[in-house]
């Protein structure tokens, strides 16, 4: 069957979405940061409070962490100039793997150049033609990419919905040989925590392996920030746990941890590990020091939890409908996409840097402003952000109107299945 030849780039010419938002003067992406202290940034010549970052422990500007990065450059140079498989494997990579495995309570660990490459590489190398991935609908894009690269099938289940997971397992498990259930430990947009006890039970019942993405749980959940398994006191419940150093650990890089045997296999099979350059020395030095801090300085995590709890409490009391409830991610339900863009722009104009989450990342009409908090936010930072959020929330009719608040809460119940509703009505999702 022949096809009429067209210009491959026609779609680029037709692509108007971003231009429309730019033309409306509310484009919130790619804002150039001139300088930053982590919790504050300078953009377009003005200092703003950052409440849109994943720098949960605020370690990007920790003096010891910065020194460690410099020492690593002195020892190894600025780059590895190749894959770890061939010429880029540093003793520091191996030290990091050994220490991280111990911290997480796993036998072994493998460090990749990024978390995205970890998910893409691990899922694609483990899943064969007759195997299946069961994937939560709210899983991160890198997991989705991994499922696309994998040659086996993927079956999706409703977000954190164990009844739906059991339904799909009942209906489909017998069609496949091996099976892997994949879910975020802390979901990146909603801040929900995975229902690990239930998912682990289903994995056992239906002979599946379990893989958790702890990108937003490392440094955040557990007594020292070891992640989701530790939060639930269920170390070993997941067969594999992956994570990233691009959030709490103030750097760049990814890891997967599990049994010796499986990690050895991934090390020799994952193409995104074998054929991509290694995590650079400064990044490894940074992460090693972050690990020491997580192990020995509980005050950072305590401060993160205090700040997150304050914002959850205050924003709910103000009348915002928030998703999530137990993590530093506090998404505010706004409604339609253009309102979320306009709201984000007004926040920015008032010196508050946050990011919107719009469709298709969330259902139509359920746009969010994803706010997230850090250990290093001062009360002054947070109080300022609250003041602006109160003023603008009223201006946009998102808070201060019982009717609108109810309407938004109803939208959230329908689409997200749970909500911490403004004015104090809180429904936990676990
Ligand atoms: C849940 C989740 N998994 C994986 C990744 C990818 O991590 P990285 O930034 O290291 O590529 C991210 C980052 O956005 C994430 O949020």
Structure, described:
It is a single chain. By secondary structure, the chain is α/β, with parallel strands linked by helices. The protein folds into 2 domains: 17-50 and 299-416, Aspartate Aminotransferase, domain 1; 63-296, Type I PLP-dependent aspartate aminotransferase-like (Major domain) (Aspartate Aminotransferase, domain 2, 3-Layer(aba) Sandwich), CATH 3.40.640.10. Helix content is 42%, strand content 16%. It has 16 helices and 14 strands. The strands form 3 sheets. The chain has a 7-stranded mixed β-sheet with strand order 4-10-9-8-7-5-6, with helices on both faces. It is globular, with a radius of gyration of 22 Å. Mean pLDDT is 94; it is low at 423-430. The structure holds pyridoxal-5'-phosphate.
Largest sheet: 7 strands, mixed
CATH topology of the largest domain: Aspartate Aminotransferase, domain 2
CATH architecture call of the largest domain: 3-Layer(aba) Sandwich
The top-level CATH class of the largest domain is Alpha Beta
Strand content: 15-25%
């Amino acid at each position: 069957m022949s096809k009429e030849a067209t210009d491959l780039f026609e779609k680029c010419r037709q692509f108007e979405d971003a231009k429309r938002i730019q033309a409306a003067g509310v484009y919130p992406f790619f804002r150039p940061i001139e300088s930053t202290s982590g919790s504050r940034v300078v953009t377009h010549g003005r200092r703003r409070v950052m409440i849109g970052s994943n720098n949960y422990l605020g370690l990007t500007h920790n003096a010891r962490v910065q020194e460690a990065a410099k020492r690593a450059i002195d020892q190894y140079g600025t780059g590895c100039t190749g894959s770890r498989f061939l010429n880029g494997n540093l003793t520091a990579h191996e030290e990091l793997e050994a220490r991280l495995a111990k911290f997480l309570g796993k036998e072994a660990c493998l460090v990749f150049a990024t978390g995205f490459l970890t998910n893409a590489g691990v899922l694609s190398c483990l899943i064969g033609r007759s195997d299946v991935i069961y994937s939560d609908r709210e899983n991160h894009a890198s997991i989705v990419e991994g499922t696309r690269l994998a040659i086996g099938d993927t079956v999706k289940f409703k977000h954190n919905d164990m009844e739906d997971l059991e339904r799909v397992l009942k209906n489909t498990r017998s069609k496949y040989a091996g099976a892997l259930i994949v879910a975020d430990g802390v979901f990146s947009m909603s801040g929900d925590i995975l229902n690990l006890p239930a998912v682990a039970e289903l994995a056992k019942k239906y002979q599946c392996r379990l893989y958790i993405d702890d990108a937003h749980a490392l440094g955040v959940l557990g007594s020292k920030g070891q992640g989701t398994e530790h939060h639930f006191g269920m170390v070993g419940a997941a067969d594999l746990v992956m994570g990233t150093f691009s959030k709490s650990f103030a750097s760049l890089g990814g890891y997967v941890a599990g049994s010796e045997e499986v990690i050895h296999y991934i090390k020799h099979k994952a193409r995104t590990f074998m054929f991509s350059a290694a995590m650079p020395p400064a990044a490894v030095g940074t992460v090693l020091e972050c690990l020491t801090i997580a192990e020995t300085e509980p005050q950072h995590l305590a401060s993160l939890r205090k700040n997150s709890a304050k914002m959850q409490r205050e924003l709910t009391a103000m009348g915002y409908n928030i998703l999530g409830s137990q993590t530093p991610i506090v998404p505010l339900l706004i409604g339609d996409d253009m309102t979320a863009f306009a709201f984000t722009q007004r926040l920015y104009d008032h010196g508050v840097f946050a990011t919107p989450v719009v469709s298709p990342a969330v259902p139509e009409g359920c746009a969010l402003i994803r706010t997230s908090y850090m250990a290093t936010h001062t009360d002054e930072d947070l109080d300022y952000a609250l003041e602006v959020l109160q003023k603008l929330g009223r201006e946009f009719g998102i808070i201060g109107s019982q009717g609108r608040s109810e309407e938004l809460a109803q939208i959230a119940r329908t689409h997200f299945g749970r909500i911490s509703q403004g004015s104090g009505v809180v429904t936990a999702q676990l």
